[in-house]
Amino acid sequence: MKAIISCIFCLYTVCAFSQDSIVVRKDSRLDMLNAKQASLNKFASKFTSNGLYRGYRLQVLNTRSRDQAYKMKAELLQRFPEQKSYVLFQAPYFKIRFGNFTDKEDALRYKNILAAIYPQGIYVVNDEVEYKPPREEETDAQ
After folding, report:
1. CA 102 to CA 134: how far, in whole Å?
2. How far is CA 103 from each of CA 32, 34, 72, 99, 109, rounded to the nearest angstrom?
3. Where does the record place the SPOR domain (predicted)?
4. Structural domain contains residue 4
5. Residue 41 lies inside a defined structural domain of this protein
6. How many CA atoms lie within 13 A of 128 on its CB side?
7. Does residue 16 lie in a domain region?
């Protein structure tokens, strides 16, 4: 009985290995779907989990004085009305962050402008920025 089962098993494995090639035909629409998904992933990777854009801001001031922080914020808004400034409190420090930059080059350009006005250390920091992409960028990703 064992010999018969062994022979059947051996014959089955020999027959199973006798297939030497498999032809797979891929639908050409899969390439289009793959490209579309890749562009969506690239677009989505620019956003954080809470819907804000990954970008850069300039950290202009880091102080313990609340009055000094709000004075700097008002001064920045007066000199650069086209850019926003933000006050962050991370105990015990108040930090002033400036701008919503999507490119590091833009942030560095503003850093050079601010460095001429404010000689203390100004740093480019990664942050979540407010940004609404142009309509054509949104439609390309969809």
Report:
1. 13
2. 30, 28, 24, 11, 10
3. 50-126
4. no
5. no
6. 8
7. no
Tell me, what CATH number does 93's domain have? 3.30.70.1070
Burial class (CB in 10 A: 0-12, 13-18, 19+), 124: middle
Number of domains in the chain: 1
The pTM for the full model equals: 0.62
In single-letter form, the type of residue at position 34 comes to: N
Over range 114-126, report the average pLDDT: 88
One-letter amino acid for residue 91 of the chain:
A
Where would I find the beta strands (DSSP E) of the chain? 53-63, 85-90, 93-101, 123-129
Q: Is residue 31 part of a domain?
A: no
pLDDT at 132 > cutoff 80:
no
CB 54 within 8 A of CB 48: yes
What range does the domain containing 106 cover? 53-136
